[in-house]
């Protein structure tokens, strides 16, 4: 398996992670349920993928609003530690 090049598009699973992150959630547990049902992965794996996506230039190009919002949240959390 080769590493993704700078012009390679995001894989479908990574696009699906960004799409799920754009949505709003009605209550506790709804997002985790959707992660399992729609993506077929655990919430822990989802957040691992999401965190890696925040550092991927292709994700920023795909969805700059979501990626920049999540980067700000991540930085704010790091600042509180």
Give a structural overview.
The structure is a single chain. With 81 residues, this protein is mainly α. The chain is 68% helix and 0% strand. The N and C termini lie far apart (37 Å). The mean pLDDT is 90.
Write the layout of secondary structure elements.
Layout: H1 12-22, H2 30-39, H3 43-53, H4 57-62, H5 64-80
Helix pairs in contact: 1-2
According to DSSP, the number of beta strands is 0
Q: Strand fraction band?
A: under 5%
Instruction: State the low-pLDDT regions, or none.
Output: none
Alpha-carbon Rg, integer? 13 Å
**Derived structural class:** mainly alpha
The shape, in one word, is globular
Helicity, as a percent range: 55-70%
Whole-number average pLDDT? 90
Query: What count of helical segments does DSSP give?
Result: 5
**Could you give a short account of the major beta sheet?**
none
How many angstroms does the end-to-end distance come to?
37 Å
**Pattern of helices and strands:** HHHHH
Give short descriptive properties of this protein.
5 helices, 68% helix, 0% strand, 81 residues, mainly alpha
């Amino acid at each position: 398996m080769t590493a993704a090049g700078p012009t390679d598009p995001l894989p479908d699973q990574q696009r699906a992670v960004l799409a799920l992150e754009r949505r709003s959630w009605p209550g506790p547990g709804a997002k985790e349920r959707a992660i399992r049902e729609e993506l077929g992965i655990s919430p822990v794996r989802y957040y691992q993928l999401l965190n890696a996506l925040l550092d991927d230039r292709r994700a920023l190009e795909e969805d700059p609003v979501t990626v920049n919002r999540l980067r700000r949240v991540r930085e704010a959390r790091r600042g509180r530690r």
